[in-house]
Design brief:
five-stranded parallel beta sheet, 461 residues
Length: 461
Amino acid sequence: MTASNPVTASKTTASKTVLLVVDDDDGIARQLKWAFDGFQVQTCGDRPSALAAAHKRTPAVVLLDLGLPPNADEATEGLTALEELLAVAPSAKVIVMTGQKDRSYALRSVALGAYDFYQKPLDLDELGLIVERARRLHEIEQENKALQATQAQSQIPGLLTTSPQVHQVSQQVARIARTDVAVLITGESGTGKELVAQGVHALSPRDQGPFVAINCAAIPENLLESELFGHEKGAFTGAHKTTIGKVEQAHKGTLFLDEIGEMPMALQAKMLRVLQERMVERVGGRTGVAVDFRLVAATNRDLEQAIKTGAFREDLFYRIGEAVVTIPPLRERPEDAMLIAQRFLQSWAGEQGLNCPGFAPEAMSAIMDYEWPGNVRELQSRIKRAAAVADGRVTAADLQLAAPDQDRDAVVSLKEARRHAELDATRKAMAAAGGNLSEAARLLEVSRPRLYQLLDEHGLR
């Protein structure tokens, strides 16, 4: 490797990055320490010293030889070291190195959470590209974590986003929450309208009061009135005691009416009266009960169109929509799909005790490309199903996602056809290799630098 290698060329960027080299060959360890002089390199010759170093310095990137003492001719010690290193430093990008030709080692390493698998003998230029790419990915992930921590302090609790659109929504919610206006949240099903409603409550002066939610579409019409307004004892058959409704339960707090567009017309009139008079009359009651609550409503329907067709009252619309917040669908913010997917997989796999260290590269691409008609709810559902069947990293097949089929009858240029063929072949190779770049390059019969170029050209990084 010359002085202009890709690693030393980025000394300024990598100067604070800790690179842990675990190899019992002193010559190779010294060679790697020299080659990566733009990093803070620490070398170790066995598993115990590597774990001690990882505890002390938390490396961003690890170069791990599988053949470690006392069983240098086997991969057992190296694979054990891989598991233990990731337990100590779960964010580290571990690049496994070996002179063994057995392909099963590559598959086992990736399944255990290795970032990449490198076949010896060393090509320092090639290895330099892999390490630099791992460093950059680690840096991006740490920046995302820092961004999420900042968001948790200043935005809607639980809302994950890097989208400018959603940032505007959260800023709007923070301003609206300080007042006591009624809020109407609109957006497609599964976009997180209840999460935003809870944010309005949490950021408001009523945050110490109750947050009471009711789904107007989930309760039969003949029961919804009693659920909302309560009933007196003996009001109807089966009413053996006086019951307080959701409106009264929300006193001094927030009442969230989800899917308000599905509320029957007769109840719309009664709800309008409650909002105007701030009094609720229980079913079978003769006197009103004073209530003080903040109304937040949500719908995935076009209420203005419903007004035109006579399905929703115009006067109620203006009462519930003193402030309107619209949540964009997930297909308009694909960067959020990946962010939410990573956080949810980490959380869900941890809760269920599943071995899912992350997403394979082609799965990330599929998540970004898919339009998510069911929005966040569909994303979470697919991840739960995928995590249950995944063997290591979650693949596109585990998610039951694939690239959209091309129209076979459409006439395309040779350049476009070649591009589609490259994309399809690269995705299939990455899937077959379980996300391992060395194996994918071998399957495609291209060099690793060429594979990196293909990944960049087709947005598969």
